Each structure stands twice: as structure tokens, then as C-alpha cells.
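Hi there,

I know you've been waiting on this one. I reran it after we fixed the sequence typo, so this is the corrected version. Both the input and the resulting structure follow.
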Amino acid sequence: MHEKNIYDILNGNKNDDQTLEKTLENWVDYLLRFLFYLMSKILLLFFLVAIIIVCFLVAKDYMNINVLVGDGFSERANIVLKGTDSSNLSRIFSQECIKTDIGIYDEKYQNYIVRSFIQDVDVDFKLIMPWNKVAVVRTSEVIENIDGEMPADLMDENTPESLVKPPKWDNGLYDVTLQRDESTWKITDIEKITSISMP
């Protein structure tokens, strides 16, 4: 009777050890599954945040370029048509572009007084990644309703009627190249692709 009790006790201790081991295995398995689930969710969250940041930077760069190109063509047109100060060009254009852009030095309006005009600049959407240092955007420029005339002291009775009013603007489609300068952009080249005919 005494030997049976000892056997039962020893056998019972063995079963308890096996149960404890099984329980620990289950807990370890549960913990690993939980950690795997948690890590997958964290990685997914980081991935979504990265996508949001990239999308924000892409949109920011496109908006900045859109505004910069619009300002650049506006400055350019005002210099040619109205003879305004060109000191702001260096804020938008590189020095090399200012030297080589023949549009800035168009002199066919220098004998006219231009009061106003309507300009429409349209920049096509371009996907510009945050790590891109150079971007080329297709841009159309149309200027209409140029209100002005040749000064009276430059005219005489032989001046043709067609020369009294300013000539039409040479509207066109351009490839505008921009280069990132730290956190800002500058226009480095303007290449005319084709003229745009207006009725």
C-alpha cells in the first residue's frame, strides 16, 4: 500500500511537469503569434505613413513648380510687353537661363505702350518624386487681348494702321526644365516645342 502511494505520487509529478511544459509551449506559441501580428501591423502603419508622406511631397513639389513656372512666364511677359524691371528674374530663373532665353530679349514691343494683356499659362501634371533633382514639365502659354499702341511721337502720316497696335504674341508649347536647389526650384531652360495658333 505504501509503495503504491509513492508510485502514484511520482507518476503524478511527472504528469504535472508534462502539463506545465505543454502550457508553457502554448503560451510561447501565443506570444510569438501576437508579436508577429503586432509587427505586421506596425510595418503596415509605417508603410501607409511613408506613402502619405511621399504623396504630400509629390503634391507639394508639383504645386511649387506650377506656381514657379506661372510666375516665370508672367515675369517674362511683363518684361517684354511692358518693359518692367528684370531684377526678379534671378529668383525664378538660373543665370544661364536668363542669358540664353531669347524670349526675354524680344524687342518687337519696345516701341509700344502696353497697358494690359490676358495671359494663360497651363502646366501639365508631372509626377515628381522627392528625390528627383531635375524635372521637365510641358507648359502652354497663351497671351491675348494686348491693349496698347505705338506712342504718337513715333508715328507719322506714313505709319501703317497695322503697326499702330501691338503685334500678336507668339503663343507656344514649351518644355520647361527645372532644377532643385536645396528645398526650392529654379527654371534652368525653356525650350519651345511648337507655336499655338489662335483664331
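Quick highlight: The CA atoms of residues 178 and 187 lie 4 Å apart.

Best,
R. S.
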